[in-house]
């Protein structure tokens, strides 16, 4: 770059003062300053754009590397699964040929005939298992009541000798 020291800037300022004149020098200086500022912003924008493009290219390269690694892992998994499936099929087919009845003789442990039922308790059994004092303490309803019966129960009582509708 150009090496501008204080002495060189003073010489340029003196020449500009003589050539341009003292009346127009401030306006020209503002214009030159604005142009230099625009040039710096443009250069900074170009630098930022170039750095973004470089980073984007690096990210694209990393993405392709990760995708390739994922494909390699997927291929390895599929290969192992197919090998294990083939070995299992060969083992099962070998057992079926060895048995005289033609069956495999293999009974899985999850077979329904061997499964012990652990069924859950019904709601009524659970409700009956609670003691009555606990139900009263917890305000558990003991019986169902219809809407009309509930209204009648909570309606204010009529005074002596007159009905509710008087």
Automatic annotation (TrEMBL):
Localization per record: Cell membrane; Membrane
Keywords, in A-Z order: Cell inner membrane, Cell membrane, Membrane, Protein transport, Translocation, Transmembrane, Transmembrane helix, Transport
Gene3D superfamilies documented for this protein: 1.20.5.3310
Keyword Transport applies: yes
Topology within the bilayer: Single-pass membrane protein
Annotated stretches, region: Disordered: 90-109, 146-166
Similarity comment text for this entry: Belongs to the TatB family.
NCBIfam families: tatB (TIGR01410)
Purpose: Part of the twin-arginine translocation (Tat) system that transports large folded proteins containing a characteristic twin-arginine motif in their signal peptide across membranes. Together with TatC, TatB is part of a receptor directly interacting with Tat signal peptides. TatB may form an oligomeric binding site that transiently accommodates folded Tat precursor proteins before their translocation.
Subunit structure of this chain's protein: The Tat system comprises two distinct complexes: a TatABC complex, containing multiple copies of TatA, TatB and TatC subunits, and a separate TatA complex, containing only TatA subunits. Substrates initially bind to the TatABC complex, which probably triggers association of the separate TatA complex to form the active translocon.
Protein name per its UniProtKB record: Sec-independent protein translocase protein TatB
Organism: Cupriavidus malaysiensis
């Amino acid at each position: 770059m150009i090496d501008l020291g204080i002495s060189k800037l003073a010489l340029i300022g003196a020449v500009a003062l003589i050539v341009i004149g003292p009346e127009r020098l401030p306006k020209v200086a503002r214009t030159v300053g604005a142009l230099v500022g625009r040039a710096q912003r443009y250069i900074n924008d170009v630098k930022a754009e170039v750095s973004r493009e470089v980073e984007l290219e690096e990210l694209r390269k990393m993405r392709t590397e990760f995708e390739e690694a994922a494909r390699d892992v997927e291929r390895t998994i599929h290969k192992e699964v197919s090998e294990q499936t083939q070995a299992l099929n060969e083992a099962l087919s070998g057992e079926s040929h060895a048995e005289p009845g033609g069956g495999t003789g293999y009974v899985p442990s999850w077979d329904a005939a061997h499964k012990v039922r652990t069924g859950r308790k019904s709601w009524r059994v659970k409700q009956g298992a609670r003691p009555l004092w606990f139900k009263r303490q917890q305000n558990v309803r003991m019986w169902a009541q219809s809407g009309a019966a509930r209204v009648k129960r909570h309606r204010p009582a009529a005074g002596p000798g007159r009905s509710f509708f008087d």
